[in-house]
Model the fold of this input.
Amino acid sequence: MPRLGLADEVCYSILPILIGDGIPFFERLDRDIALHLAEVKAYKSGMVELRYEVRREADERSRRHA
Done:
C-alpha cells in the first residue's frame, strides 16, 4: 500500500520480545517514503504503539527527482 501512495498513516506496535529472524514490514519499495511521528503510546505491558503520518510533500519531491 505505501508503494502505491494509498496510505495516510502507518502504525507500529512494538512488543518487548526478541525473535530470531527479521520480519520485513513491507515488500521492496521503489523509493523512500518520508514519515512524521504523530503519536506515541506506551503501555504497562511494555508494548509501544507508534503512529506515523505519511509526508506527501516529500513524496512528491522524490518523484520529481527520480
About this structure: Residues 6 and 54 are 10 Å apart (CA to CA). The two ends are 20 Å apart (CA to CA). The chain has a mean pLDDT of 80.
